[in-house]
Design a protein that fits this description.
By secondary structure, the chain is an alpha+beta fold. The chain is built from 9 helices and 16 strands.
């Protein structure tokens, strides 16, 4: 809305119409429209502030200012007048600052607010720091207020500076006499404050030992070792240091100075060993027998049979078997496929004969000659012995006697010779070797058997005291003891197989092996033995 025109304006502000009169004169239908019209005619708050600002600016200049067609009234007397220019932060002030970047700012005239007019306050001469036009601002002459400072004498740092003449202040120093350190020689006499005198005699490089021997020391008589003229130096008399003075050498001349020597009696030094018994057959195993050998297939068949039928534990023999054993009435079991005859000829005696075509066979006796359950030394506490003999008849084949005698644990393959497999041992007559679980060539033991001889074999079991048994085997020929061995001592752990079954923990039976033509007698009756020292 506009009240009046430019021609009709005056210096007085236009009266504000009363809203209540207008509302009363208008009808109900036109109220809302009239209110919206008035609201649209009102100015924003920012425009009213700017209008008042222009009115104040106009009043200070004495001219009328117009803003949006309204007349700005003059300021009343006594009102506060702000400094000229727009207030800080106003858009007009920003535009003014941007348009005059290089213009110098001048504070408003008069003292700052809150200070009296009579105070003699004035800003320092010159432009404020950082606002110099030509950058040639210099600090005021003289030292800062409150300091009496004088720069040191001489040129500033970075120039050719020379120290002042003379010693530093407060010191009276004079260099020492003589040349510089590079040509320095120590002054004569001892250092200051010391009364030192060198020792008598020449310096160490020219030192000579004092005259006479050291205190309480005397060299041994005779020349020193380096000065021996003819290598005839003799040690000092008396015993060496640390040995009693009562020491005397043994009587007689030294060994090197003996006048006579005894002749060497080699007969006494090396006695005659021809009467010694032969050494044990250590490491005397053979890969093959020098006599007759079985085939490798037969050996493999015997090993397979032993794997199929393991050793039996000790058996509880019936009373009839124990009685027969005590009476030495051992029955011999005919091997399967045996080519020959086997019959008892008397109490405790058996006769046997094998054909020339007979293959390897093992004749085993029953009951066992040793029952571990009742006769073990670990049970009875006393030693146990067993023995039997075999007489080789003269009608056997001439030359090589194909017969063996020994012992075996049960069961044992009866198509193999005793001593070739586990749990058995024997002495073979064709080569004289002993076999202990040895299917190769055995070990050297005795001479081969001959027709007409009577050979015997026995075993002795005794407790050791550590829960084990000592087992000894002995061999006789025609009633004489000709050899024997210990089951555990004469063995090679690397070459020999285990002796399981022969250590006295299993039942043991007699085992007689034959092949080819043989005629023999097996004797169990002790009264008919040629060797009477068996028990």
């Amino acid at each position: 809305m506009c009240f009046g025109s430019k021609e009709e304006r005056d210096d007085n502000p236009a009266p504000r119409p009363a809203q209540s009169l207008r509302l009363s004169q208008r009808g109900a239908d036109s109220r809302s429209g009239s209110i919206r019209s008035r609201m649209s005619d009102r100015k924003p708050a920012g425009d009213r502030v700017e209008q008042r600002y222009q009115q104040r600016e106009g009043g200070s200049s004495g001219a009328s200012a117009h803003f949006n067609g309204n007349v700005t009234p003059h300021a009343a007397p006594g009102d506060f007048a702000p400094p000229p220019g727009p207030p800080p932060g106003h858009p007009a002030a920003q535009l003014q600052t941007q348009s005059s970047d290089h213009a110098l700012y001048a504070p408003p005239p008069g003292p700052p607010p809150g200070m009296g007019t009579n105070e003699d306050f004035a800003p320092p001469p010159g432009p404020p720091p950082g606002l110099s036009r030509d950058g040639d601002f210099e600090p005021p002459p003289g030292p800062p207020p409150g300091q009496h400072y004088a720069p040191p004498d001489g040129p500033p740092p970075g120039q050719h500076y020379a120290p002042p003449d003379g010693p530093p202040p407060g010191q009276h120093y004079a260099p020492p006499d003589g040349p510089p350190p590079a040509q320095y020689a120590p002054p004569d006499g001892p250092p200051p404050g010391q009364h030192y005198a060198p020792p008598d005699g020449p310096p160490p490089a020219q030192y000579a030992p004092p005259n006479g021997p050291p205190t309480q020391y005397a060299p041994p008589p005779g020349p020193p070792p380096q000065a021996r003229p003819d290598d005839d130096f003799a040690p000092p008399p008396g015993p060496p240091p640390g040995i009693s003075d009562h020491y005397a050498p043994p009587p007689g001349p030294p060994p090197a100075a003996a006048s006579t020597t005894l002749p060497h009696e080699w007969q006494q030094a090396v006695p005659d060993t021809t009467m010694f018994p032969p050494p044990p057959a250590f490491f005397s195993g053979h890969d093959r027998s020098p006599a007759t050998n079985a085939t490798e297939e037969e050996a493999e068949a015997g090993e397979a049979w032993c794997e199929q039928y393991p050793l039996l534990p000790p058996q509880s023999l019936p009373s009839q078997a124990l009685q027969a054993q005590a009476a030495h009435e051992i029955n011999l079991l005919l091997p399967q496929g045996f080519r020959g005859t086997l019959t008892p000829s008397a109490r405790g005696v058996w006769e046997g004969r094998s054909d020339a075509t007979a293959r390897d066979s093992c004749i085993i006796g029953y009951p066992p000659m040793y029952a571990a359950a009742t006769q073990s030394p670990l049970v009875t506490g006393r030693a146990f012995k067993m023995y039997y003999e075999v007489h080789i008849r003269r009608d056997s084949q001439p030359g090589e006697v194909a017969l063996a005698l020994g012992f075996t644990a049960l069961p044992y393959p009866n198509f193999r010779m005793p001593g070739w497999h586990r749990g058995s041992l024997a002495v073979h007559g064709d080569d004289g070797h002993k076999y202990v679980n040895d299917r190769w060539g055995g070990r050297d033991f005795t001479q081969p058997f001959h027709a007409g001889q009577t050979v015997g074999i026995g075993m002795s079991l005794a407790p050791r005291g550590d829960g084990s048994l000592s087992v000894d085997i002995w061999f006789t020929r025609d009633g004489k003891l000709v050899g024997g061995w210990n089951l555990h001592e004469e063995s090679d752990a690397e070459e020999d197989l285990p002796v399981t079954g022969l250590e006295g923990l299993h039942d043991l039976s007699c085992a007689i092996g034959v092949f080819q033509h043989n005629s023999f007698e097996v004797i169990f009756d002790p009264k008919k033995w040629k060797y009477q020292d068996a028990f």
